[in-house]
Structure formats: C-alpha cells, structure tokens
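Title: Prediction job returns without error message
Component: structure pipeline
Severity: low
Priority: P3
Assignee: unassigned

Description:
Job completed but the reporter wants confirmation the result is attached to the right record. Sequence as submitted:
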Amino acid sequence: MISSSPPPTQKPTVSLVIPGRNCAQTLEKCLNSVVPLLDQGELQEILFVDDGSTDNTAEIARRYPVQVITGTGGGPGAARNLGWRQAKSEYIWFIDSDCVAEPDALQRLIPHLENPEVAGAGGSYANLYPDSLLATLIHEEIIARHRRMPLEVNFLGGFNVLYRRTLLDELNGFDESETNGPGAAGAEDCDFSFRAVRSGHLLHFEFNSRVGHHHPRNLLKYLKTQAQHGRFRVQLYLRNRDKIQGDSYANGVDYIQPPLAIMSLAMIPLSAVTLWGTYALSALIFLLLSLQSPMLCSIRTPSWLLALTFIPFGFLRAYARGIGMTQGMVTFGNPTPQQSTSIREHHAKQNGVAS
C-alpha cells in the first residue's frame, strides 16, 4: 500500500493597500519599492486608494501595475476600508504613500502570523532624510520608542502593518470618523489596534521590518501636524479611556506634557500681576523642560550637541499638542448630535451591536 503524504500547506496570499491624497511627490518612490514584490510572488496585488487628490497622484499611480481606487476624500480610515474590502487576499498589508518599503519589510512580518493567535504584525521606520536635523530628531525619537516596545503590543501604526482579513471583517474595518478631514492624519490605526486587543487578539511588533519615511523637515508644518494629532487624540481617548495612561508606544510622561503646556499659557496673565503667578509659571516651564530628559537619554544622534536640540524641540511640540488637545476638548467634549450618533455607532460596532 502506497502511503500518501499530506498536501503542502498553501502559502497565504497578501494584498497591499496604500491610501494617499495629493502624494505626487512621494508616490513614485513608494510604488517603485513595492511593485517588484509582485514579480517575486510576495504580493498578489497592490491597491492604491486615491482619496480625493487634486494633483496628478492618480495619473502617477496608473503608470504602475496597481489597481487604482477612487476614494471620496473621507480620510485615511475610509481609504483603507475601500482598499481592503476590494482586496482578494487572506493577509492585508498597509503602508503609507509617503513610505518606501525596504526589500524584506513584508517578509519579516509574515512569520508572526504563522501563529494562529496573532492577528496582526507591524514594523518600524527608516529615515529618508538623514541630513535634516528635524527629520533626524523625529526619527530617533520614534526609533527609541520602537526599541522599547515588546513583542506583544496593544498599538500598531498603519504606516507598516499586516493584518488578517478575518480580523478586518470581524471589527468592521477602521473607524472612518477618526480624522481631521480630507488628507489629514487620523487615529484610525490606533483605534483599530486597541479594538483588536480588546477583542482578544494578539498583535506583534517587528522592529526589523522597516519602511523609509519622509519625515518632516519644516518645523512650523510639523508643529501644525502635531496640533492635529493633539486634537484627534482627545477623540481617540474618549473612546478608549483605558489607554489614557499609556500604551505600547507612549506613556504618562508623554501625555502629561500638553496639559502642562496649556497650564503655563494660562499662568502668563497672572505672572504679569502677581509674584506667585511668576513662580508658578517658572515651575511649570522648568518641569516641562525636565520632562524632555528621559527621551533625551534614549535618542541616538551623531553628537550630544544635536541631541540637546531635542529639549527645545520637545518643549515646543508640547505646546502644539496642548493647543490641539484644547481644540479637541471643545469639539469632542461637547459633541454635536451628529458626533454623539457617531460615538454611539462606534461603541455599537465594538460590542457587536447593530446600530
């Protein structure tokens, strides 16, 4: 009798989804880095979601062997959902349109999902502007945070993450209200990873899976973006109150800085007329500067002189985030009827209740 061996396990297929809006300056490099994976058989397909671009983004995308999907300008959450719902594969890999994938970025994520209990795996960044001081500071801070992240995490960024399609189906995709408008950054990736862990799934972090990123090089534009981050973080934590004290990426030292910055601004009028107001303002500023020390000791720039610039950098960013959080409290702390409905629908989806 001839014994028959079991059939070989079929390798899971992977679809890549790239959301983007007005990304003509970065999209070509992004696609050049991932299209070779189609020929190598690592990707079954690439789907680019043009989220309401007004430049020649879509024209650039159509030069490549990718499926171009026309979005509505609903933000990254809506664009990601359009993409993965039209994808054909078991695994969905997301990267951003301003990222350049390293050749082994995907292959370093896939082994994590060989564990059936792991529903997603995310990676880290490389710096595409090493000659820029601002980009280097931003990058080295991110890498310092990534170095201390454990294998099992409760937070994964959407810039380089691989999810099972079954998880995306189960959680009904990304929350489309977690955005600041067309083309603006949102918290939909944070919210999704929080919900995944809350639903009992494991998420893994892989430091050696990297995509190069076009980190900001203009300080004012960066601070404006950080204000947007502060604003949508309020919405995120109103919906995920258990993460207010921190997650796998950030901690209480980070979260206390924006409120301290706003408190110091509020003390300026009192400092002009009272001595205790001056003391209080000085103490708040000193404390805010001191809170930059833990990260200062973690980042790895070429010299200490460069590293020391992180202190004023982090100090200014705390004010930008604080202003954004104040705007967020005004907007989301007293929601309109439409926003209240969105919040109820969000919680209904989390709990598996039909809205």
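Comment from assignee: result matches the submitted record. The two ends are 59 Å apart (CA to CA).
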